[in-house]
Design brief:
About 35% of the residues lie in helices and about 20% in strands. It is built from 15 helices and 16 strands. Bound molecules: histidyl-adenosine monophosphate. Histidyl-adenosine monophosphate binds next to strand 6, strand 10, strand 11 and helix 12.
Length: about 425
């Protein structure tokens, strides 16, 4: 039996791989304009890094990590997200001593052991931006505007940006208390098993439980925005004002608590109504205590990640680029000349191909057609003797043929 890929891990051929290349290039361009530089971090980290940053109580840490011992028994984990590794690299390189604000872009595969479905894979890819060293609300707004610009520039429409403020540890503590009191007043038997457990350990997560029973029980829960302290409120107001000024529409959602524990103040998600249950295409927020919690200096941060598989489901179809030429060789000695012509044109910057298998004129012409090349360049024995090439413009009506000197072919393009 032949070996197949692992469930939830996909191969990617064009057009999907082309879509990924396109998104990465656009991301580098758009985020590069905003001052982001690229950081590449390892795919594997010490397990402890994720437990300490994402949070022991989260689904990601409890159920979804690919964790294994290495040959010396040290526990390692395939990264389930990029932020923790970026923080580790930032602290380890003492980057804050080199620049007051770091804007770091990263992209690549992430791993979560979830049930695969449309838009949800065990190996998936994120485009990730983190801005470290600024606590200004203008930074939150800048980041969100950059994200929405990127999504617009790759051609996505009809997305909605949901936002909430989770407050700071002190005002959130008061909110947690009020929320637990509210939850305790309910018939808790009606909550799902996960929520029964987390209503005391991580009560905010009860708010974004997808189970219908939990949803209806929490519909009248106190909202966190009412508990934001004046500083958190003011921070959020400036973010919202700047987004309004940048003409980025926002929907406030006081149940948006995100699935990772490190957030404070601004949190956001971009959702699409067009891709089914896994509707969140991007998510992020501020995480001011995280770097300190991981042993670094007390440096604030804010960031987001987009899920590339989900973006790919929404991308408008793009027409594949046409190659410039396809060379057809027919007769004695013509294959060598064709090989030379292809190399010479490619070295001059033009794209095209030929058939190394040769074959009949008809079959080579079929390949020329299939390649969608703009010009078919035919070298027969007669052309070879005269140092010429017959040219067919494949896009012209009737595809008439004329001949040009072999040395002047590049002028066609
Ligand atoms: P997240 O919400 O866990 O946040 O993931 C961000 C995005 O990754 C999601 O909105 C979704 O598009 C995509 N995603 C997550 N899981 C899967 C999956 N199994 N299959 C396909 N796509 C998936 C984070 O990861 C945070 N690190 C974001 C962040 C950066 N916050 C601050 N900085």
């Amino acid at each position: 039996m032949s070996v197949t890929s692992i469930k939830g891990f996909a191969d990617m051929f064009p057009p999907e791989s082309d879509a990924f290349t396109f998104m990465e290039a656009k991301a580098r361009e758009v985020f590069g304009r905003c001052g982001f530089v690229e950081l590449r971090t390892p795919i594997v980290e010490h397990t402890e890094l994720f437990c300490r940053s994402i949070g022991e109580e989260t689904d990601v840490v409890q159920k979804e990590m690919y964790t294994f011992p290495d040959r010396k028994g040290r526990m390692l984990t395939l990264r389930p997200e990029a932020t923790a590794g970026v923080m580790r690299a930032y602290i380890q390189s003492a980057r804050h001593t080199q620049e007051p604000v770091s804007k770091l872009f990263t992209t690549g595969p992430m791993f979560r052991y979830e049930r695969p479905q449309k838009g949800r894979m065990r190996q998936f890819h994120q485009i990730n931006c983190e801005c470290l060293g600024s606590s200004s609300p203008y930074t939150d707004a800048e980041l969100i505007v950059a994200l929405m610009t990127f999504l617009q520039e790759i051609g996505l429409r009809d997305l909605s940006l949901k936002m909430n403020s989770l407050g700071c540890p002190s005002c959130r503590a008061a909110y947690k208390k009020a929320l637990i009191a509210y939850l305790e007043g309910l018939d808790t038997e009606l909550l799902c098993d996960d929520c029964k457990r987390r209503m005391h350990t991580n009560p905010l997560r009860v708010l974004d439980c997808k189970q219908e029973g939990c949803k209806s029980l929490t519909a009248a829960a106190p909202t966190i925005l009412d508990y934001n302290c004046p500083d958190c409120r003011q921070h959020f107001d400036v973010v919202l004002r700047m987004l309004d000024a940048a003409k980025v529409p926002v929907t406030l959602d006081s149940c948006l608590v995100r699935g990772l524990d490190y957030y404070c103040r601004t949190t956001f998600e971009v959702v699409s109504g067009a891709i089914g249950a896994q509707s969140s295409v991007a998510g992020g927020g501020r995480y001011d205590g995280l770097i300190k919690q991981l042993g670094g200096a007390d440096i604030p941060g804010v960031g987001f990640a987009c899920g590339m598989e989900r973006l790919a489901l929404l991308l408008p179809q793009r027409e594949a680029l046409r190659p410039d030429f396809f060379v057809v060789a027919m007769g004695q000695g013509t294959q060598d000349a064709a090989f030379g012509l292809v190399n010479s044109l490619r070295r001059q910057g033009f794209a095209g191909d030929m058939s190394h298998a040769g074959g009949s004129f008809k079959s080579q012409m079929r390949q020329a057609d299939k390649s969608r090349a703009r010009f078919c360049l035919i070298i027969g024995e007669e052309e070879l003797a005269q140092g010429k090439v017959s040219v067919k413009n494949m896009l012209a009506e009737g595809k008439e043929q004329h001949s040009v000197p072999m040395a002047g072919v590049a002028e066609l393009f």
